[in-house]
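Journal club side-thread
Mid-discussion, someone asked how the predicted structure for our own chain would compare to the paper's figures. Pasting it here so we can look after the session.
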Amino acid sequence: MKRPQLIELLQRIRASQAETRLIVAGSQALYASTGTAPAVVEFSLEADLLLVREAFPARADIETNFGMDSAFQAETGFYAYPVGLGTIVLPAGWEARLVPFGRDEGLVNVWALEIHDLLASKLMAGREKDFEFLHALLAHALCDFPTLLARLELLRAGASANAVPERLTRLARHLRDWRRDDLARTVHPAGRPSE
């Protein structure tokens, strides 16, 4: 999904859900941080929208009117995928790091996950496409690797703590496959290295 398509989707949702806080939580959140995005961002036909607290009841309406198999998707070819916090794992403090999105296009109360929170979430999801997303961002210098590792460390104190070492092991393996041994050496699945 290209940025203009995401803007159109969000504007159409805002027209029917004017008060609902929308949080772009998928790969398109990258558009809040940069004007250009790797092709991997444009390939996706869906925009993940995180709805929390008072926004969550809007999920059914967004899914019906703008989700998969909706008239909106039939018209445009892309769609919204609303999710809640039961679907996505985020590092502590993520809400304080939200990035305003689409203000120049008149979007109000629309936010995007900060890129390192997004990457931590994707690595916790652990799908191959999530690792490929990270690979693309590294190749385009669109993330700071130490910041990503710090966000993953924040997850060690949460409900998904048991999954963190395995995700870090997989991350190190992918980095070696991508010939990024410089970064792989900084990944410590068992925790921080002893001083």
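Post-session note: The first helix runs from residue 3 to 16.
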